[in-house]
Amino acid sequence: MTTSAPRRAAPRVAAARLRTGRWWATAVATLRHAWATLLRVLAPLTQAFSTFGVAVLVVAAGAWVAGLVLGWLEVLVAAIVLTVALVAAIVFVLGRLRYDVTLSLTQSRVTVGDPAVGRLDVRNSSARPLLPSVMELPVGRGTAAFPVPRMRGGATHEEIFRIPTRRRSVITVGPVKSVRADPLGLLRREVTWTDEQELYVHPAVKSLASSSTGLLRDLEGRATNDLTDSDISFHALREYVPGDDLRHIHWKTTARTGTLMVRQFEETRRSHLAVLLSTRAQDYADDEEFELAVSVCGSLGLQAIKEDRGVTVLVHTGSLRGDHHTRLLDDLSRIEAIPSRSKLVDLARGVGSSAASASVIAFVVGSKVTPSELRAASARLPVGVTVMAIQCVPGANLARHTIGEVGVLTLGRLGDLPLALKKMSDA
């Protein structure tokens, strides 16, 4: 009997422990759920506290503790004042905002210097009035603030704004955020209403007339000194060797000489323009030089696309899209001159893989590129390709000189580009 009693009590103890464990687990889960619910409800409030508001909250809590523990009446008065200010700020920023906000741009693409206008429409979608607030609109690196007055149910408010386009870039507009803050700046509540949009500020370009691009135009292809066994331009005859295409046998000459003779052709190359734009900051004296270079690059590329010729634009960071004029200008809007160890000769090495079919290659560089760098870069290009260089020096007179077999144009204004290309083609 002595040993059987503990054995009978053991299952009861185990069951009691199991019930206690289940109760404890249920209590912990309930507390966690209640805490998560409380944090979710208070999230708009806790996120709304500014740095100043957090400081006031800490000081108020300390004042309450010090006033109650030490019995300091002055500290208690300060604690009451700070608490009243915090409660008033909470009441001011709380409340559900029911806005319908629309951000629209009249154009998503403009040329540098052209006006760009946007519109912000705010509508109170609720039936009750809404307190005044402020709509903040990030535009590039800045932020525009538009005060929204007290709006009755269903009312609308419109703001028209202009976006500065003094510089080529891609400007991010938005997202629009409504801001409600108390007068003391203790709390600041933000709600995002729209997605961000992009405004492309394209570089200025110059339209090139056909008469000024004789060097670049060759829609029917041009003959080269490279001989091939299959092409369009007939060059000469040679003796047949095993493996030659029988369709190229010249039977009249074969009958006359008694030896199989086949036609030999000059290889023709379809016109394909490759523009090598240096984006290395060390190649330019200032930003004005780089902007002129980007405009020259865009002018050459657009003319090639307009004449339905192939165009490849290479920069130090890769290649740009040359299949459509809008995509090319969009890519040119993004590029920046950045310091780089990669030099012009490194850019020229990429022609073999990215623009192997190029018939004309144009370097577009700044004033800091030396003749030796141009000579070294041109030496890395395929043999038999026409090469020219345009050195952008704002304010300089139009001039032309040669470095080895490379014709170099010194360009001071974008408007001189058609005349410069005409001089190059006439040379």
Automatic annotation (TrEMBL):
The keyword Transmembrane helix applies. It holds the Pfam family DUF58. Keywords: Membrane, Transmembrane, Transmembrane helix. InterPro entries: DUF58. The keyword Membrane applies. The chain crosses the membrane at residues 48-69, 75-95. It comes from the Bacteria. Residues 237-393 form the DUF58 domain. This is Uncharacterized protein (DUF58 family). It comes from Isoptericola halotolerans.
